[in-house]
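Revision sheet: structure tokens.
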Amino acid sequence: MPLSGIRSLIGIRGLLYTLFGTLMLSTLWVTSLTRLSDRPNAIPLLTEAGANILNPFLAKQGLGISQQTCKTLEASAKANPKASLSFSSVLKVHVPGSKIIGKNCDDVVRLVYNQVATTYYDHGPEAVFAIPTELKAALPSFAFFDLNKSAAAPGGPTVSQLPNFLQPFLVFVGLTPETFTIGGHQRLLSLLPFFWLAVVVLGGLTLLVTRNEQKLANLAKGVLHSTWPVVGVLVLLWVLSFVYSTTFSPYLGVLGLVTFAFLPIYGVALVVAVVGLVLMKVFEDRQPRGKERQPALATTISTLAGRSAPAPMYMPPPPPGAAAPPLAAPPQEPPQEPPATNAGR
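Predicted:
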């Protein structure tokens, strides 16, 4: 094969391995996100995010559930236990007063945001939050972070603008307001088989164009490099949560649920890749030893044969009654000249 053809083939192989690693990373991400957006995981995740992240933010603006709000709600509940209580101008969710009687404020907050999470998952964000009309069109693409100083809810605070370059990234990785709804979960679930089919096809194509013994090891490396960054980030976040416990305390519930959804997927793939590489390395170290003995032995035999005298030619025995072939005369030494004499003596 010409040198240009070899370079072209190497370039194609490198491109295929790069695409395989990227596709594996995307497939594991979609698999983990599908697991996280499933109802048993999504509702606790939304509850934790609402109770520990969203409510403190709203409470500072006078729109969330504070200690004073809990006292007012409990008094209203005792006065009319069957009445549905509203909690702020931001939230559309109502909870019967009988469910909050006798509970402390933390339990009331979690009860309310569990109802918020359930409604959000079943019916979407518009069924939970009072969203101004001018923001509804921007909601599906996370562009609502670019509010141009518009209120996030009637009478509510403005939200800091998210950098424009982050908005496409959030949509690309699947983190939109619809992700943690039943519709978003079904969309991810319908896309998942196509991702895994593409991984299998691209992996098989990569093996076909690679003829050396490192093709399986290269695939394992692609899986390894697509898993360790996510596993590393999760481990780093948990380490930081112990070092900066006060800062991370509101996010521990969310972090635990995200870890529960992502780590089994990425962790198993990482372990399989590492074990595969180790086994192939052990096999590679053992396999060439038997193969190297034969060339070495052949080289030694050839060297010795080249230095030794040629083997005598085989001659078949004469038939019965035939005269034996004459033996070859032994080689005679050439006659030596007599030593020269001195003529003058």
